[in-house]
Design brief:
Layout (H helix, E strand, L loop, with lengths): L1 H4 E6 L2 E9 L2 E5 H4 L11 E5 L5 E10 L2 E6 L12 E4 L9 E7 L14 E7 L9 E5 L22 E4 L2 E9 L7 E6 H5 L2 H11 L5 E3 L16 H4 L13 H11 L5 E7 L6 H13 L3 H4 L10 E4 L8 H4 L8 E6 L5 H10 L10 E7 L5 H8 L4 E7 L11 H21 L8 H11 L14 H14 L9 H20 L6 H14 L4 H16 L10 H14 L14 H14 L9 H6 L6 H12 L6 H13 L1 H14 L2 H21 L1 H6 L51 H4 L33 H7 L3 H26 L1
Parallel strand pairs: 7-12, 7-14, 15-18, 15-19, 16-17, 17-18
Antiparallel strand pairs: 1-2, 1-4, 2-3, 3-6, 4-5, 5-6, 8-9, 8-11, 9-10, 10-13, 11-12, 12-13
Helix pairs in contact: 6-7, 12-14, 14-15, 15-18, 15-19, 16-17, 16-19, 16-21, 17-18, 21-23, 22-23, 22-24
Length: about 800
């Protein structure tokens, strides 16, 4: 928060304000640390926290005009500071004035003697100042009057205070404007500071990351990049830009040409499988478009402006935020990651931009997706004037056109080593011990098979291998799984956060399940966050009769823990572990450990069907699991078993997921669904016979014919369709009876054991219906009692008999 960053700057009897912008760095006004009329900068001064105790000696590390950057030892202040987010105002709509706040120590806030109390000045930046060299902060609070005799300003002591819009630092206060009745404060926009390479170098050395400018008044539209931490999830995040961009220059030039085309609005898509560099390409495009060129932009006929670019927040609603795009001072690039799962949001954005015309600046919408299947042609047909059809297709070998895999590994190794060293130098805590990890896995870690020779290497797989090699300080060979290295490194990060928040450490196995559910279910608010925690507890301790109770205090502590290790980057309640490869590894491990036997885990079945989660959370769970099907096919088997056992709650989402997956992953999911249904029907024949309907299928082969492999199964011409769902072509399922002879050996993998009946599940196993089943009692009553329709039919006669007996008894006594 901005209040926690506010400090008092004291130098030679003068007092001003400042703002901590990175570990060991304070931004303030130069005249606070330099006497009036002197060109000599004072070498030593002091900073102290306004909102708490702590004092540190400081010196001037950089200055420009009337802005100075002070350096102090981070350990001298009893508080850790994450790097600040830098912002600028880009919207000139009079109806959307940017609300700002600055915290300082003005003379008007003096109390007894010379003691000053901190004061927050709230106001707004005039729209006409958005593109100017200075911001004019119009104070909305009571404006103090100046002392005409002495000629001093009542705002003296506010100089150097940071001006924040939401959580973004946009300016630093310089002085009160004369002849404005003390009603306005003049502030220097931080975008001018980021134009100086020396300033950016100092901030990068202190924070471990290069400072980047964000559109502050579009914070409701865009999310933010992750904060630097000593965790593999941060180092591998494409938006962290840890590894230098390499190998996709042709695609980058095509996208830049698309951005500078004359259309007022245009939409393009980057398509490719997971880990090929789609998001990294979009990040690089956004960074290069947003690079400022002050000399070029200051020309009278300048047209090559820096762009406002960002990733669309999944929680952004189509309200007045989209209307702000008509009043921008710069062109804008809006990136939508995982667009195939956010088609409703994409349509809402395009509907808001239908009437976007010149003289408004250009708007480009870049969609990033693993599959364009059917939705991309439909989007082009619906908005032919806005969707030009530009499609960039990425394949794993695109990266290897200019450099080979070994050179990419070496570049990644150097980049990871530098970033880890920069994080450690900036004070980011990290207690990773490579020897401890190697000793841990030496005895009981199974050998890693490594990547098959015919599997193409992706940029993500190369980065994962390189980062694991840096962490263990040796090349990764077949005896060591790089995902295991990174997951253990992530657990050490969890250990450090747990030690601060929990007097007694959490059960490590439960903590892994908790982190997995956090990523799977996500949370829009505190209610959904609490529901995810309770679902994780139920999924982990479901079969343990002696499980400890989950108290409200425990829920509150775990909620703080999850928000601390993976804070939100947008308007969600929290973030989650990433990237998808690491998430799939974590979920796969938790699933494998949830029942002690391979192929018989219960974690996914309980989580996906948990009545504690909202429908949107269950849908999000299935989507996240689906992203790991290709790398971990066992997840598809486990998720399909959950769908087969709970069709009323999950079948529509499973069918919708089938439309969004890439071709290869779609085949895995389709086959897993049919196999799971077949095993379910064979396991529960009674329920299969009494169900309303089953999978539509053609007559199967005779018992004498061996059942062929899934790839050779014909496709049904009359696909199954539920009310309100899309028709899908489903593969022909094998007969109910188990195959014999050579057919059994032709199956691609062993069939896992069917899931046991789970008291956590809200809906009992049943066959897939072809229409909505009739219910004998209201849904809420039946689900609350934990019974299916057949159970209610058995209970209802006894219940009616008892009610009748009760009324007869009452009637007999009254007579």
């Amino acid at each position: 928060m901005f209040w926690e960053r506010a400090v008092a700057v004291e130098c030679a009897g003068r007092i001003g304000a400042g703002c901590v912008v990175a570990p060991g760095l304070v931004l303030t006004a130069l005249h606070v640390v330099r006497p009036a009329g002197s060109d000599q900068v004072f070498g030593r001064c002091a900073v102290r926290l306004i909102g708490g105790r702590g004092r540190a000696a400081a010196e001037v590390a950089w200055h420009l005009d009337d802005v100075a950057l002070l350096r102090f030892r981070p350990a001298d202040l009893p508080r850790e500071f994450a790097p600040v987010r830098w912002g600028e105002l880009v919207c000139i709509s009079p109806s959307r004035q940017a609300r700002c706040v600055a915290v300082g120590l003005p003379d008007a806030a003096k109390r007894d003697g010379d003691r000053r109390e901190p004061e927050a000045v709230e106001g707004h930046i005039n729209a006409v100042d958005t593109g100017g060299n200075f911001y004019s902060l119009q104070a909305d609070s009571v404006v103090p009057s100046g002392e005409s005799a002495s000629g001093t300003s009542p705002w003296a002591g506010m100089s150097g205070a940071g001006v924040f819009h939401e959580d973004l630092l946009i300016a630093t206060v310089q002085q009160a404007l004369p002849r404005r009745a003390n009603g306005r404060l003049e502030a220097v926009p931080v975008r001018h500071l980021l134009d100086d390479r020396g300033f950016c170098d100092i901030v990068e050395r202190a924070s471990g990351t290069r400072p980047q400018l964000e559109p502050a008044d579009l914070h409701t539209l865009f999310d933010s990049a992750p904060q630097p931490v000593a965790a593999a999830s941060y180092l591998l995040d494409a938006r962290s830009e840890t590894v230098e961009f390499t190998g996709l220059d042709t695609e980058l030039q095509l996208l830049r040409a698309w951005c500078h085309s004359p259309q007022p609005v245009d939409v393009a898509v980057i398509r490719g499988s997971g880990g090929v560099g789609k998001t990294r390409l979009a990040v690089e495009l956004a960074r290069r478009l947003a690079d400022r060129r002050p000399q070029v932009e200051s020309a009278p006929d300048a047209t090559n402006f820096a762009w406002s670019a960002g990733f669309l927040d999944p929680k952004t609603a189509p309200d007045q935020t989209y209307q702000m795009l008509r009043h921008l001072i710069r062109p804008a690039l809006i990136i939508v990651d995982y667009a195939e799962y956010r088609l409703g949001q994409v349509r809402g954005l395009l509907e808001a931009l239908v009437n976007h015309r010149a003289p408004a600046h250009r708007i480009r919408v870049l969609l990033v997706a693993r599959s364009t299947h059917e939705w991309w042609p439909k989007l082009r047909a619906r908005h032919p004037a806005m969707v030009s059809g530009t499609e960039i297709v990425l394949a794993p070998d695109n990266l290897l056109r200019q450099v080979d895999a070994q050179e990419l590994r070496e570049r990644a190794r150097i980049s990871f080593t530098r970033r880890i060293a920069a994080l450690q130098w900036s004070g980011v805590s990290d207690d990773w011990d490579a020897e401890e990890f190697l000793d841990r896995v030496a005895d009981h870690a199974p050998p890693h098979e490594g990547q098959a020779e015919d599997d193409p290497a992706t940029v993500l797989s190369l980065h994962i291998e390189s980062l694991a090699g840096v962490l263990v300080d040796k090349p990764i060979d077949g005896d060591l799984d790089p995902h295991e290295v990174l997951l253990y490194h992530e657990e050490r990060y969890w250990d450090r956060a747990s030690a601060v928040l929990f007097p007694q450490p959490l059960d490590p196995d439960y903590r892994k399940a908790l982190i997995a559910v956090q990523r799977l279910a996500s949370a829009a608010d505190q209610k959904e966050a609490d529901a995810a925690i309770r679902a994780a507890w139920a999924a982990h301790y479901g079969d343990v009769r002696t499980a400890p109770p989950l108290t409200p205090d425990m829920v509150r502590a775990q909620r703080r823990f999850l928000s601390a290790v993976y804070p939100p980057t947008g308007h969600a309640y929290w973030g989650g572990i990433g990237p998808d490869a690491l998430t799939a590894k974590l979920v796969n491990d938790v699933e494998a450990d949830s029942n002690g036997e391979p192929g018989s885990g219960t974690f996914l079945a309980r989580t996906l069907s948990s009545p504690l989660l909202s429908p949107s959370q269950r849908r999000h769970c299935l989507a996240i699991v689906g992203r790991g099907f290709f790398s971990h096919p066992a997840l598809a088997v486990a998720a399909a078993q959950a769908v087969a056992a709970n069709p009323n709650a999950l079948y529509a989402e499973a069918q919708d997921l089938l439309e969004k997956l890439s071709e290869a992953t779609r085949d895995i999911w389709r086959t897993a669904l049919v196999d799971a249904q077949q095993r379910h029907d064979a396991t529960v024949p009674a329920q299969a016979e009494t169900a309303v309907g089953t999978w539509s299928q053609e007559p199967g082969p005779s018992p004498a014919e061996p059942a062929g492999p899934p790839a050779s199964r014909p496709v049904v011409t009359a696909p199954l369709q539920l009310p309100g769902s899309f028709p899908l072509e489903l593969p022909f399922p094998p007969p109910v009876s188990p195959p014999t002879g050579s057919g059994a050996a032709s199956r691609p993998q062993a069939v896992p054991k069917p899931l046991p009946q789970d008291p956590i599940a809200a809906v009992p196993p049943r066959a897939y219906p072809t229409c909505a089943p009739k219910r004998t009692v209201p849904v809420a009553i039946r689900d609350y009692l934990g019974l299916d329709a057949h159970g209610m039919r058995r209970v209802l006669p006894a219940f009616v008999f008892l009610v009748a007996l009760f009324f007869l008894t009452v009637l007999w006594q009254t007579r």
